[in-house]
Amino acid sequence: MIERIKWLLAGLVMLAICGGLLSVVNGGKLSNSPALEYAKYKANPQWADLPLVEGQLQCADAPFVMPSSGWVGVLYGDSILGTVNHSGLDIFGLEGNGKTPVVAAYDGYLTRLPEWTSAVIIRHTDPLHPGQQIWTYYTHMASVDGNSYILANIPPGTEEMPVKQGMLLGYQGDFNGQSWRQIDTHLHFSIVKDDGSGRFLNETDRANTLDPSPYLGMRLNSTCADRPPLCRPDIFCE
Prior knowledge:
By secondary structure, the chain is α+β, with helices and mostly antiparallel strands. The chain has one domain (2-216): Glucose Permease (Domain IIA), CATH 2.70.70. The chain is built from 3 helices and 15 strands. Strands 3, 4, 7, 9, 10, 11, 12, 14 and 15 form a 9-stranded antiparallel β-sheet that branches.
């Protein structure tokens, strides 16, 4: 009887995991996972009904440019696997690894920590809140086996390298560190708060990040996002 109960519990756990893998809560509505939606996206030659953006698109009065091109598959505030609130945007490119460019969203100073295979972070003067600092974080710029797609002139250990808006940083990839969860080729982009002394906070906690909507001039928060994203003056949810 005890063994039967163990097997039953194990089965329930697996069902829960599978359910998480096959769903993402989007603005309170259950929809397909990013991987399944991306498969649909790639199979559609017109891509007419899916949210596409162009890299370096800049909406009127918005300070940032879009840092990469493709399908905005996961938005700010989406819940992945039913547990973790997403801290930024996932932009899935068209061409696979090492093809879709990633650029700096705004002028600033770039750092790549020595242990970072696929990521860089840029410190900015906050264009919407003068006197404050923010950081933009760009990751998954490497292949699953750790072949980095970040430009060679941005090696690990780079600190405070001046960059201009639109400067090429690297290319989208599918590296996901030591995680068990495989991912499609994409860029994860987020806006990270400063700790008040010139250091960035932990990006994996959404409380340490900012809604990118006002910086990009689009509704990119899962609560009220447009599909596809579009430039608009009223970027906040009603």
